[in-house]
Structures are given as structure tokens and as C-alpha cells.
Amino acid sequence: MVQIPDDPFRQIKISKIILPTLLGLGVVAYFIFKNFNPQAFDTVVFTFNSVIWLLVAALLMATRDFGYMIRIRVLSDNRLTWLQSFRIIMLWEFTSAITPSAIGGTSVAILYVNKEGIGVGKSTAIVMATSLLDELYFVIMFPLVLVFLKTQQLFAIGGGISLTNPFLIAALVGYSLKFLWVLLISYALFKNPRGFKWLLLQVFRLPFIRRWRSGANKAGDEIIESSKELKKQPVKFWLKTFGATALSWTARYWVVNALFLAFFIIDDHFLLFGRQLVMWIMMLVSPTPGGSGLSEYVFAEYLGDFLPFAEVAILMALLWRLFTYYPYLIIGAFVFPRWIKNKFKIKGNKKE
User: Fold this and answer.
1) Quick check: 125 and 226 in contact, CB under 8 A?
2) Which of 64, 129, 181, 308 has the fewest beta carbons closer than 10 A?
3) Are 122 and 109 in contact (CB under 8 A)?
């Protein structure tokens, strides 16, 4: 039987909210100081057009969250209400915002779903399915982008392209990891969950990773529980959930297009969309909470070609994070304590 953690306090601390904020703002401040150019900043003019496109960006972020809510309701067979779905998504995004990108919020997501009245096995299946669907979107979309856009367009920043290009290397590493993850999790969930657990435990016999063997055993149990739930789902179920996934991620990528249009004229929207998809694949390897610091740097360097002055890119990176990252920190900081109070009975320093 899968056991879920009943104490999320160990992972959610105020210091973990402060750190990514300081990292992100620190990178922005550094680049502004290093590349300060008054002429560049004069190109950013706030107009009525800016208001319209900023509202569009906010609407796209709302669409992104709405897509996630649709998905989690379908995965729960509509046992979760819209309010419960919203609460889970906000908590999940909050946790993702304060943990490294490679980890995300999945480590406590099972707890979030379970505490809303969904059984442990079903909660595990929901979380595993969301992980699979998210990665499947990237695995499918990246080759499609390469079909319609030349590699030179995607990776040649300020010059030519070569195998030593850091953006190309990061994208290939990130995509390879996602592709392998989709293959492994698909095999484990739909083909041979018990065999996968056995293989996992054999791998974790190696001396340098043996101390994490108990965690591997738990992961194997989660795979088996999830497999029982997901194998019985029809094709229609997967079309609905993947459609909601595609809606969420696509809406999120178009946010940058809207933000750029608020202040500048953009000629190639699909190229901007494609670069964002590649950027998110690169951010998979970020060791910082929520990709803070690295996200701002990659955004400024990788998307700066679309702006009249490179110095403006770091300001647009900050604006992008204000729309796509910091709201979840703020909302989570309010929602999480209330959720803890409602879902955990506390007496003194002990939880019942």
C-alpha cells in the first residue's frame, strides 16, 4: 500500500519563498546595472494598447489554470469540484515555485489531492498521469516546432550555430530526459508496473545511491497503484486530458507574445512561441527554486532578439515572471496556511 507524507511543513517554509524571489530580482538588478542604457529604456512606452495586451496576457494565464482545472477534474472522474480543483492547482503551483524545476511540486501533490477526499491510489494515479501528460506535450511539440522552424532560427543567438551552442546542448539534454521519462513511465504504468519496480530496486542497490532505496521502493508502489487506475481508462479519457494539457501549456506560451505586443511590434509569433517551448525544455535542468535566476537569464538571452534593444529584455523577463511566477508565490502564501488549518487538526505542536 502506498504511504503518503502527512507533514508538508518540512518542504514548505517561508525561507523557500524568499530565496527564489531574491534570486530572480538579483539577476534582474545585476543585468540592469551591467547593461544600463537610457536610450533602450526610452523605447518602453505605456499606452492604451499596452493595457489591452496586458489584459490579454492575464486572460491567457487564467486560461492556463482553467485547463489544468479541467484536466484534474477529468482525472478524478469529476469527483473534485471546481473550487477543490482550483485549490489543488494553486497549492501545486506554489510548491513548484519554491522547489527546483527538476523536482517540481509532485512530491507533495499526492497529499494535496488526497486531502480533498480522493483515495490514496486514485490520488497517486492523478499525479502520475499529470506528470506523463505534461512531458508528453513537450515530447510531441518539440519535433513539430522543428518541422516548421529551422534549427538555425531556434538556436542561433547573435551568430551561427554549432554543437557547442549552450542553448542547443541544454535543449537536447532536456528533451532527451523528457523523452526517456515518457518512455519509462508509459512502460511502467501501462505494460509492466511490477517489473519496473523490480528493476528500479535493482538499480538502487548500487552503493552510491543505495541510501535512496526506500524512496525507490515507495515510487514503485505508487507506479503499481497508479497502473491499476489508469489502465482501465478509455481513449476518450486520454483525449480529454491531453486536450486540457495542450490548452494549458499553449496558453502559457502565448503570454510572452501578448507581453511583447504590449510595448513592441513582433513579426514572427510562431518563432517566439517555438523558442519559449525550447526555453522551458532547457529550464528542466535548473537547480534553483522555480528556476529563479536561470529563468530570467535564459529569457533575456534567448528571447532578446525579438526586442529593439537587448537591454530591454531583462525588464521584459521581470514582467514575464510577474505574470507567470510571482502570483503563485503570493496566492500560495495565503492559500497554504488556510489549507493546513482546515485539513490538519493541530493541538499544541502535535498534528492528529
Assistant:
1) yes
2) 308
3) no
Amino acid type, 13: K
Q: Which amino acid is at 128?
A: M
How far apart CA 99 and CA 55 sit, in angstroms, is 29
Q: Give the span between the Cα atoms of 73 and 96, in whole angstroms.
A: 20
With cell 545511491, the residue in question is 209
- Whose CA is closest to 3, among 176, 215, 232? 215
Alpha carbons within 13 angstroms on the beta-carbon side of residue 84 total 18
Per-residue pLDDT of 285-318, as tens digits, reads 666 666 666 777 778 877 888 887 767 887 888 8
| pTM > 0.90 | no
CA–CA separation, 226 and 2 (whole Å): 10
Q: List all residues 6 or more positions away from 168 whose beta carbon is below 8 Å from its beta carbon.
A: 151, 155, 161, 162
Nearest to 5 by CA among 124, 181, 93: 124
Q: Per-residue b/e over 209-235, b at no fewer than 16 CB within 10 Å?
A: eeeeeeebeebbbbbbbbbebbeebee
- The region that residue 233 occupies, defined by phi over 0 for left and psi between -120 and 50 for alpha, beta otherwise, is beta
- For the chain, domain boundaries: 8-345
Q: Are the beta carbons of 58 and 234 closer than 8 angstroms?
A: no
